[in-house]
Amino acid sequence: MPVMRKNEIEQMLPEERTKKLNELRTELLRFKTMVSSGGTIENPARIRELRKTIARILTLENSQKKPEKVLNR
Questions:
Q1: At what angle do helices 14-36 and 45-65 cross, to 10 degrees?
Q2: What's the DSSP call for residue 47?
Q3: Helix, strand, or coil here: 57?
Q4: Digits of tens for pLDDT over the chain (73 positions)?
Q5: Domain assignment of residue 49, given as a range
Q6: Per the domain annotation, does 23 fall within a domain?
Q7: Is 68 helix (H, G, I), strand (E, B) or coil?
Q8: Does residue 44 fall inside a structural domain?
Q9: Measured between alpha carbons, how far is 10 from 26 in angstroms, rounded to an integer?
Q10: Whole-prediction pTM value?
């Protein structure tokens, strides 16, 4: 699975983002478990991709939850 970009994540519905976030976290946990048990994974860079994609989704969700701050000058 290729890296998900910001515009792809923005186009997803909130339910889809939540589902995708859970899938990515599960996959990341599986990879981390394999590495910690002494196994090897086919693509070690995939762990970094997963972490960055999870961060992108969480950043977008958090920015949508917070109201825009209005600067009083």
A1: 150
A2: H
A3: helix
A4: 567 888 899 999 999 999 999 999 999 999 999 999 998 888 889 999 999 999 999 999 998 887 766 666 5
A5: 6-64
A6: yes
A7: coil
A8: yes
A9: 21
A10: 0.81
CATH code for position 57:
1.10.287.310
Residue 1 lies in a domain: no
| Of 20, 29, 33, the residue nearest 60 (C-alpha) | 20
* Residue whose structure tokens are 């762990």: 47
> Cα–Cα distances in Å, from 37 out to 42, 45, 46?
15, 18, 17
Query: Cα–Cα distance between 50 and 38 in angstroms, integer?
Result: 20
What is the total count of domains within the chain? 1
Q: Count the Cβ atoms, other than its own, within 10 Å of residue 44.
A: 10
CA distances from 39 to 7, 23, 50, 63, 66 (A): 35, 21, 18, 37, 41
